[in-house]
Structure prediction request, 282 residues.
Amino acid sequence: MRLGTVDGRAIVIDEGRSYDVGVASEGKLPADPVVLLEHWDEFQDWAASGADRPWSDLTLTRLGPPVPNPRQVFALAVNYADHAAEAQREVPEHPYVFTKFPSCITGPWADVVLPSNRVDWEVELVVVMGTGGHHIPASEAWSRVAGLTVGQDISERRVQFRKPIPHLSISKSFPTFGPTGPWLTTPDEVLNPDDLAISCDVGGDEMQSSRTSHMLFSVPTLVELISAITPLLSGDLIFTGTPSGTGSTRDPRRYLQAGDVVVSRIEGIGEIRNTCVDSAAG
Ligand code: ZN
Prediction:
């Protein structure tokens, strides 16, 4: 199943058509995606019941982020060995978790507003929590995940590398620095949720290309290790880290410029397209 939003309301998507969950359930299920994900099991049973639904044509450009208002947004700093190498960082013994503040979350076709000339791209698989929980064992992790979506962990490198310690959370939380979408795809819809092709083009050039099986800490391991400390809540997002090919590690370095279109793709989920604009124009 694919679940997205239009105007902040949860919709079920099938090819070029969709229906509004709140309308179709006559108000029995909530329209707000976070509240709906709190009723994830009930919703899945209802959605699978085979009843007629009020399908209508979906205009893709109307799609917003799958979860516009998550309570917690986790992100991984170094979770691919090739990216660790290019960033000249040691492979960590424990996952390096930071937060993207939820106000940075935006939709699949949203403009990315550039506050400076040091803004970089990072395509990432993003996990959307369903039922969530505290102390979730890896063996149960996929059953607590509602779905997977495509994300960009847009990063302002000048702020990030302020001395003496990295400023990860704030440098990756400017408005529009968290494009996600175009929908969440439930794990059963993809061939192997632990091994998906992931790539990113900038201005028509392929910059990143890898597979999620190259993650140092897999999705089930991340869910186990994060939830061992912080309870995961319905609708929470986990940005699972980026593979190699970011702009600040290229020679010569390349940063996003106004007019650049960033296309981010993950096999079995889809792609998002974000156009960069100067902050004066945004
Ligand atoms: Zn990242």
